[in-house]
Every structure is written in C-alpha cells, then in structure tokens.
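FORM 7B - TANDEM STRUCTURE REPORT

SECTION 1: FIRST PROTEIN
SEQUENCE AND TOKENS:
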Amino acid sequence: MADDTRRPGVLDALAADQPWEIPAGWPASVRSRLRAWGDDPNAVRPLRAGAFPDFVNGTPAAVWFTHQVAPLLTGWIPVLHGERADIGAELTRDFHRPSVRFGGAGHLVRIAPTDWPLQAISGARGFREESRRQAVKLSRDVMSLFLDAPPMAARAEALVTAFDRVLADREALRMHASADYDTIAQYWRTSALTDLERAVLPELAGPTAALHYSLNSLRDAHAKLSMVMPDDPGDFAQLLSGLILTTGLTGQPQAVGQILGNAAWDVENALAGLRDGFDKDEWLAGNTAWLGRAVRRDHQVLARSWAAAATRVSVHLAGVLGDAPWPEPQVPDLHEFFRLLDLERRLTADATAGNSDQSLTAAWGAVKASQSADAQAEGEPAESGPNQPAAPVEAGDGALAELESLIGLESVKESVRRMVAEIKTNLRRAELGLASHERARHMVFVGKPGTAKTTIARLLARIYQDLGVLEKGHVVEVDRSDLVGSSVGTTAPMTAAKFREALGGVLFVDEAYTLVPENSPGDYGLEAVATLLKMMEDHRNDCVVIVAGYHREMQRFMESNTGLSSRFPKMLSFSEYNTDQLVAIFALQARQKGMIITDDVLDVVRRVIPPAPRGHNFGNGRFIRNVLEEAISNQATRLAQRDPDTLTERDLRMIFPEDVKPAASMRAEDYLLQKPGT
C-alpha cells in the first residue's frame, strides 16, 4: 500500500464532539512502534502461526491487540466514519492481510465483550507466570499508543493508569500471573478502576452495567436535545418504546425493565399506545428529520451524542452482544445522519474559506448517498422525512446525486435529467417574462417489481420541491384498497381524501391497472379513475400523480379512459436488472449492513440468481434483499452452534459462501421463466 504520511485523513467517532483530522505523521509513528515490537524477539511473544486469521506469521501479540482495541478506545459500541474509520486495520497494515478492507464514505459499528481491555491477558492464561506478567505490561504499552489521539485519549489514559497500578502492586500483579481468568475479570469489574476511570469505561463493570450506561446516556442525550429542539419525537418512554418496536421486539426486555424501575411502567404504557398501527419506517424517518434539523441549527454536538446513544441502545435491544443479527433498520439511520454531518462540515469549511457560493453544489455532489442503492433494492429510499426543510443547495442537486448513485436505470436517469432541464428552462423563461412551454408533470412508470419505481418517485418529489414546483415534496403511496370502496358512494370520497393528502407532493398509485379490472364494466374502480382525473384538473399545479405497474397491464389501463393519455404525457420504463447489477446490489447492501463478503460469496450469489429470461413477477432488487437476509439468518444459525464467548467481531460480520442460499420466503414466480408476450 502506498505511503500516506502526507495524507491526514479523518476519523469521525460519532460519540466525539467533532471529527478528528488525523495529523499526517501520527499513523506512521504508531506503525513504527509496532514494527519495532515485531523486530525485537525479546519484546513480546509472537503469535503462533495461524493462531489469528488475516495476520502474517510471527505477528507480535501487541500488534494483534492494537488492532482489537483501537476502535473500542473511542467508546463503548463505537460508530466510526471517515477515511480512517477502520482505524485498527490502518495502524496494523504492515502485519494485517484481510481478505476485505473497509473505507470510503461508509461507517462501521464495533462491538466486543465488556472485558475487551483484558484480551491479551486472557490469551496468556495458559502461559507461564512471567509471560502472564508480560501480558499486563503489553496491555499497558498498547494503550499508551493512543494517549495523544483525542478520540481515544480519555479512555486510553484511564486504562494506562489502571494497568500502572496493577504493575506497581505486588499482590495485584501476582494475581494476574497466577489466578484463574474469572478472578481477574471480577477484579477489573469491582476494584481495578477509580470512580472517575469507571465513568469513562462503564462497560468494564459488566454487561448489566453496560446496558445501564447505555440507557442512561440515551435518556440524558434525549433530554438535552429536546431542550433546544422542542419539536422532539416524544419523551424518553416514547423514544424507548419506538426503539423497541423498530428493533423488532414486541415488548420491553426484562433486563431493561429491571434497570428502569418505576419508569418501566411509563415505557409499558407508551408501548401500548404505539403497537397498533406502528410504522417503523415512518418513525425512523421522523427521528432522522429531527436530527437533520438539529444539525442545520448548529446543534451537531447534541445530535451526535443522541445518535451514538440511540445506536448503543438499539444494539443492546437487538441482542447483538449475544448472537443475534444486527438491528434492521439501524436506529438512527446512520447513513443519512453521516451524510448530513459531512455536508454541514463541507459547507462550514467552504464558508470559512470564503468560497461558500461556489461550493454548495459541489458539496452535495461530493456527499454521495451510499444508502440509495440499499433503498433501491427495497423500492424505498432512506429519507429524512417528507416535511423536512430542504438543505441550502442548488435546486435538485442532492436528490440528483442520489439518483446518479443508483445501480442501473440509465434510461430513467436520462429522462429525469431532461425533465429537470425542462423545468429549469421554463423557470428562467418566467423570470424574463417569456411564455412557458411546460407540459403536465404526471407520469406513468412501467416495470417489474423491485426495479426502484417507488425510489424514483420519492427522488422526483424531492427534486420538484427543491425546484419550487411542489410545496412539500412528500409522497403518498396508494393502491386499489386505498381508493376503491366496497359499496356505492364510498369510492369518490376515499379517492378525493387521498388526493388531498398528497397536495403539495406526489400521489403514487401502485398497480394502477387494478383500478380497471378486465371484463368488469361496472367495477367501482372506474369511479376512482374519474375522480382522479377531475381532481388532477382542479389542482393541476398542486400535485403530481404517478401511476405504476407492469407494461402490458398499464397499456390496457391507459386505454380504458380517453382522458388518461392526455393527462399522463410522460412514461418512464424501468428495465429489470441484469445479473451483474443484482450482484453489485448484493455487495453494496452487505457492506452497508456491516457484513464482510468475499468474491467466493458473490460467485454463489450469481449462481442463486435465476437465469434470464426471468419470471413475470421476479422480484429484482427485492429478490436480492431476500437473498442477503437469508444469508445473514443462515450465518446466525451457523454461529449459534459455537460457544458465544469464542465469537469475535469478525465472526459476527463474515458471510461464508455456504450461508448464501435461496430464501425460503421466495415465491415460485421468482424462478419461473418469462412468459411470451409479458
């Protein structure tokens, strides 16, 4: 790897107040210390060949330990972002040879046992007493590498001081050299740290104490942020209830209730009020929008603290510290939150440099929304919420950047670019007092399931809002059941109500052809179509209607009413993904979920994808999402056969080729060949 002594890079630990611009020479100085340990045969006992995957033979224990502790010194369950997010791998790259490296604009969430600072001591438990004493000294020396690194300094200093006390205390050192590991671990839980040291290393007191700390830190962060952002998403009990339901639990875990005491009743009452009709995506978007407003109002520090605490609690609730898979979705939406922080940082830096006017568009272009492809596979983008104020950027550039980051869809992208150019040109004509040549903005989307039709609808809504064409830029998604009543006189009011809900945004009618069933001339759906056409005429500039479905069925739908073709002048055709694109979506989704994959895994994914021509109802991106979720489930089943105490962070994140199998929930249509004429 090329030398980077002149390239500073950024390590953004979410729990810290701000990103750390790493001094150019700091990583090189740490690597120099590690190489010196590797060159000194008397300094530390080398690891046995093959004892730890991904490290070269003869790697000293201090190097492996540095790799393990570097991220965890930034906080308990740290969230790391930036060019140097994989800080452990960055520092140990002279010895570390992983099959997959992380980097770019993503983020990493690290977990470890609560006794993580004792890993070197634990590994030496079968050695002679002198080697076990050396493991204590090794642990102390590794922690000292980070005393001048701001995100790690406080926790590193507390551990260095604690290890120094052990080394200076004859009885304590003798215990570390001769006692069983459980005795040593209990000593560190109860006696090794002062109260001040325990405050910065709360997890060392054990799993219950770690959960207690995580809940209290979230309660405190929520109270502070709510004071400056009064439009908060509820009190702590409501927040925790939303976290519980979003994580996938149906009730309050017993351990949480024991820690909360009487406050647990407030959570139970909040849960009872939320369960019916709870929409986790809507709840998540509301929280993300709230954090976005806090960032734009210069409350980044409080927002970062809240996001870090919410992440810790969601990991606890999901059971990741045991053997459960990572929570889905993440709370908060870390991809979107880091995108907001990166944008704000770039805008601030450019404004400080006196170049803010020229930099706004570039800032959005530089912050690619990597979550778009993940949402693309599901058909829904990760947004900040329908009513979130638009960021101060050139109209539409943020959503356009997300559009460009989507995999495939080239013809759709080109159509959107042409629509944006047309709108901008007409806006300029209006400014100069010239006649406008604008057409109706209603559209027909045709394509198979899972080809990102909903994603594009939401991006278009945001683009139109940024351009000033739509007031709100939200999307109201409906199907036949939302528009068509079961008796005479009920359809028109239902359709009108949904249309009014979409005013200022987009009304997205999925499977619109079901409104006009074949050979059913008296169907109530015809009344829904007539009502839509009337309201589109009455509110021609206040709402964009997008109807979507299969190509052949939508052609029949458009021919069912003479007024439809004139109201919908634009048609966007969504091609199904080819095999390479589906494999690329799998790889991106896996990375965004924090999983490690290899080329061998992608080869199996390629074999699982049915060959073209595929079935009429083939799920495309949703098919791939199912394959990934099935692989993660199979990985969890495989790991459940092992002792949980032996599982490393890499074990929990690594997907093996044998984990990839067709999802049991997939429909037979996903494997049927395409029928002629469809």
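SECTION 2: SECOND PROTEIN
SEQUENCE AND TOKENS:
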Amino acid sequence: MKKKQKVSNHSFGNTISTSIGDIIITPSMDTMNASIGKIIKIVVTPVKFVAESYRNRLSIISVKNSAIVRLSLNDPVKEKAKDIINNLVEEYNKATIENKKQASARTADFINDRLELISGDLTQVDDQAATYQSSRGLTSSDVAVQAQQFSDLDTKNSQEIARLNTQLYFIESMRKFVLSQDGKFDLVPQSNSGFSDPTVATTISRYNGLILQRQRLLKTSSIKNPVVVNIDQQIGGLRQVLTGSLNSLKNSINGQLRSLNTQNQYFGGQIYSAPTRQKDIRAIEREQTIKEQLYLYLLQKREEAEIKSHITLSNARVIDKASTLGSYPVSPNKKTIYAGAFFLGLILPFLIIYTSDLLNVKVSSREDLEKVLSMPIIGSIPKVKSKNKIMISQNDRSGIAEAFRILRTNLDFLMAGINKTKGKVIFVTSTISGEGKTLISSNLAKTLAISGKKVAFLGTDLRDPKFHKFFDLPNGKDSKGLTNFIMNDELTPEDIIYKYKKEDAFDIVPSGAIPPNPAELLMQERVNVMFKYLEEHYDYIIVDTAPVSLVTDTLLIAKHADLSIYIVRENYSDKRVLQVPENFYREKRLPNIAVLLNAAGNKTGYNYGYGYGKKN
C-alpha cells in the first residue's frame, strides 16, 4: 500500500473489521474540532501488555494486624481507575464463589453415584429379609424375644462395626477415586465424613486448592508452563500424602474391625444355641442396618452439599468501594519538579561555571595573567572581526585604535630609563605561533608612524615569515630581506628596505628567503650591522621575532632589544606555558620584558573609544 493512500471510509461509532479484530472508534468531543484534517495514528497494544501495565501500577497494601487489604491504582483517568478496581474485586469474588460451587457440585455428583449403588444394595437386602421372613412365617416380635441379654450387647457391637464399615467403605471409594485416572487432576469430593484423622480433610482441602489453581492457569497457558509443571509436582506429592493418609486410616479401622469381629464371634457363639431362624434374621438385619446408615449418611451429605452450593459466599467482603474522592496527582509531582527545577537553576550554573573554569586551561582574562606573572602588563588589545591586517589609521577612533594608542603611551613609560634619543628597539614575541605577534607588531609600527616617528619594521622570524601576507612586497614571499643581507656581503641595508605605500608610511625589512640554518645566520656579524644601521636611521625599530618556546632564534639577538613585548592571546594561549615568560623575566634572558594580552574580551575592564564615535 502506498503512503497516505486511502483504504476505506468509516463513521465514528461503527464497527470496523481489521486483521486484529473488530474495533470501534469514538471521538473526544473536546478535541474533535482541532483534529479535523489531521492524520491520527492509532496504536493497538496486545491485551497481555495492557494487563501487565495495570498490574505493575496496582498497589496492594495490607492493614497492620488485620485481614484487610487496601487497593489503589495509578492512572491518568480517575474514573477508569475506579471502575477497574471495582470490577477487579467483583471478578475476584465471582471466581471465589465459582470455585466453591465447583467443589460442591463435584461432591454432590460423587455422592449421587454412591447413592445409586447403595440404594440397589439396600433394596436387595430388604427383599432378602422379606423373603426369609415370609418363607418361615416370622415377624420382628418373634426375633426380639430371643436371647435379649446378648442381643443388646450384639446390637451395640454391630452398630460400631457398621459405623466403621461405613467409614471403611467411604475411605476405599475415595482412595480408588484418587488413584484413578479421573481423579488425577480433578477435584476430590469434600464431605465431612467424620474421620478420626483430621489430616485427611486438611490434605483434601490443599489438594483441591492446587487443582483449582491449575485449572485457572490452564485457561491462559499450556501444561508446559513452569508454574503449571510446579503445581503438577505439588499435586503429585499431595496425592501420595493423601493416599498414604487414607491407607493409614484404613489400616487403623481394619484393626478396630478385627477387634470388634472377635467380640462379635463371641456374641455369635453365645446366641448360636438360639434357633437358626433367629441367627439368620439377625444377619439380615445387621446388613440392613449397615446399608441404611450409609444411605442416610450419604443423603445427609448430599443435602449439605446442595445447601452449600446455593448459599456460597465469597471469602472477601468489600468495606469501601473504589472512589476518586481524595485522590491527587502522583505523577508528575509539581512540587517535586518545581523544587528540583529551582534547585538545579541555582546549582547547575555554578557547577557549569566551576567545571568549565576547572577544565579550561586557556588564558581567559587579564586576571589570569596577574595571578601567575610578576612582570608588568603593558596593556590589552581587544578582539576584532576585521579582515584587514593593518587596522590602524590616522583618524581612527575605534576601540582597537585607542588600545594601540594606550599601548604606545605605555611604551614610553617602560622605556623611560633608556638613554637613547633614537633607535629604540622593541621586540615582539610569543610562546607559540598563532598568538598574534605579527599582527600586533605591524599595527604597533603603524601607530608609532602616525605619531610622526620614523619607524622600521624588521622581520627576524626566519622559519615562518608572514610579511608577505600583511604587506604588498615586490616579489611577495621571495622578496629580498634579512637572510639575503646576511648571506650576501654585497647587499646594503637600503637594498632590503621597502616603503609602506599607504599613509603614515613606515619602512619594512622582511625576513627574506627561508634558510636551512636560521640560528647560525642570526649569530653572524651582519646581523649586528643591520641593527646598528637601523638604530642610526630610525626612531623605533619594531622587531617581529620567532616564538621563544619553539626555537632559540629570539634569544640569540635579544641583546639588541630595549623592550620585549610578550604576546599572550586570550582563549588561545595555555595557562601552563605562562611559566615561560615568567622565567625569562626572572632570569633576565629577555631585556625589559612586559606582557600584552591580545584578543581580549569586554571583561578586561577597558572601554576603548571613550568620547568618540567609531569611524569606519
């Protein structure tokens, strides 16, 4: 079937035949209008899954020191939960009554079968007595006057024998039933037979309870179900116990009968001298008595079973029916959710801030520098999104321009003790590549040039030069520079100095070709010649050096520096490497060193551009 293809049309409330059975769909009047034109997905859950869901949500709590239990059910619909509990109790009572009726009906059927047999035996004995008396012309009074003394004793003895025979007959019938195939998994007739052994009645009650439990389980499962197999084993065990109890009781009664028969033989011997007709009639009467007692006993038990089946009551009694009064939402618990949300709203931000601060190993503010470094902090350059490499101009009043002006002012304070009128050398370095030393040094050279100073911008990062990305050099990356001057004695400083072609120009001395041995080149005398020339012809020499933690190039020429600016980039530089500039400062390996924070955020505390409008 294609997606969204219409199969058939139906109306609400009508029966729809499906592969899973007949269903009826009824709408909710509250939401019906909002659902018009929408696709509604119907999910059909198997009955056993729904029953298991309700079973898990049903709570049964026993009241302490009583036979009372309290039932409760959690469900989104109060009325449905109430109806389920009421119907559950009602079905339980019905099942209890039905089980009792089954046991009573089985007992009545068993008694009726026995009555048919005993009724035939009793009729046969009565016919025999009538025939005997008729043939001999005897009456009951003729028999009563003979051997009165022994007759009384014999009567008592015969009654006891009859009673025991009755019990023995009933025991044998019950034992045969239990051992027969019909009684293997069927209810054993319960009749208060007056057995002297109370364990027989108890065992029968337990046996019937297991039979009923097995019948209930077989309605929803097979005989291979582990629970059914376990019950079958218990029934087999109880069957053996019941058979043993009946055998034991039978042996006990047989012992009593043997004793009574011995006495009966004695009484019989005493009356043997009586007329033969009296003895014969007594034998017939004795058999009549046994049959009559057994017949009357079974009639009584049948009546009891019939009465019991009609007045059967459930074991459970409902004190209070299920009600939604006093019910309250158990899920979601608004108070708990609000309290949890309030708690998380207070704690979670602190945990996030604390964890992020704990895991953050990057320099995130000027305060991070002040905690670790003892050297001066010359300033902060704010983070900008401009794609221009040289961002400073003559009339620029932006925050970045004001930051470089503050940096230019702070340079004067740091170099106040240097006895030079011209040729002040400022090294710009960093720990690793990417912290912005070339960007800072180039814009610092432009800032000094704007103030009217003659500035030279020298590149000594011979391993990874970036001047060709910032300035329009004649031959780009291959333009002659410092390395060419060092290796070629015929070149003069003027041959490698280029003019910055825009306003507020300064001179540029690129690093030149990338050599295989930059450290050895920087140790040549021609380097000193280059610095001496620049110091004689310029007010400031801004030197873009190599990162100090990767190579020793910067330390080889550190003697020429009057001021060393160490660049640390916010959210980029690692706090753990701040020990590198701190060691340089304490060991004086870089002269007059100060730290500059690059790409600083607003939290540094500086508000550049005070009193000015930003000029694009």
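SECTION 3: OBSERVATIONS ON SECOND PROTEIN
The first strand starts at residue 15 and ends at 18.
The CA atoms of residues 485 and 491 lie 6 Å apart.

SECTION 4: SIGNATURE
Preparer initials: ____
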